[in-house]
Design a protein that fits this description.
The chain is α+β, with helices and mostly antiparallel strands. The protein has helices spanning 18-26, 48-63, 110-120, 140-153, 158-161, 165-171, 182-188, and strands spanning 7-10, 30-34, 68-74, 77-84, 92-93, 96-101, 104-108, 129-130, 175-176, 179-181. The two termini are 48 Å apart.
């Protein structure tokens, strides 16, 4: 068996491998094998029994998750198998987010991190709330044009289109709590570039 998206081999334990565990938890889960070379040759580890207690405690304290740590023996040598389940919410290690991609550990930054966090929260980029905008900031001419096009297409009932702007925005599901969504800004704000670069 080779290293792959769900399996990583390490010769000995180092605390930095918590990043790999974080990456597995944020992706599809996986196994971290301690005591094998990168070619999959059993090297064994002498401190295997003490690590059975140390590793789960470190993972719990540093990442806030639980992993299974199993003691295995092959060719008379002990090694550890750390099984990491995928988690439905984002897991960070010292404030940084890692993700298992292929057979590599990637640190997520910038737009990749934004996209990952939104996906884990079950949201999309255009559904992010924009606190600085209210319906008064939306362009009435664009809302009027939307009503005309929607009426002509017949996709929305006249009773909805005749409602006030707040109610129309509500029916279009463009609110996130008490804030307008980014989609509302892109559709109806006179200067969406102010809030969304490249709009």
């Amino acid at each position: 068996m080779n290293e792959n998206q769900n399996t990583e081999w390490k010769e000995s334990w180092r605390d930095e491998y918590l990043k790999w565990i974080c990456g597995f938890a944020n992706a599809q889960g996986g196994k971290l094998i301690i005591g094998k070379t990168y070619k999959g040759v059993i090297k064994g580890i002498l401190e295997a029994k003490s690590l059975l207690e140390i590793i789960p405690n470190k993972v719990r304290d540093m990442l806030g998750i639980i992993v299974d740590v199993n003691l295995k023996t092959e060719q008379g040598k002990d090694y550890l198998e750390i099984i990491v389940d995928p988690y439905p919410y984002p897991i960070s290690y010292k404030g940084q987010y890692y993700y298992r991609s292929g057979s590599t550990k990637q640190e997520l930054k910038g737009t990749a991190l934004d996209s990952f966090l939104l996906r884990k929260q079950g949201k999309h980029w255009d559904g992010v709330p924009v606190p600085q905008v209210s319906t008064e900031n939306l362009y009435s001419a664009t809302l009027l044009q939307f009503r005309q096009i929607a009426r002509k297409s017949g996709r929305l009932d006249d009773s909805i289109l005749d409602e006030k702007d707040d109610a129309l925005i509500e029916k279009l599901k463009l609110w996130e709590g008490k804030y307008l969504k980014r989609a509302a800004v892109l559709l109806f704000h006179p200067d969406p570039e102010k809030f969304v670069t490249g709009a």
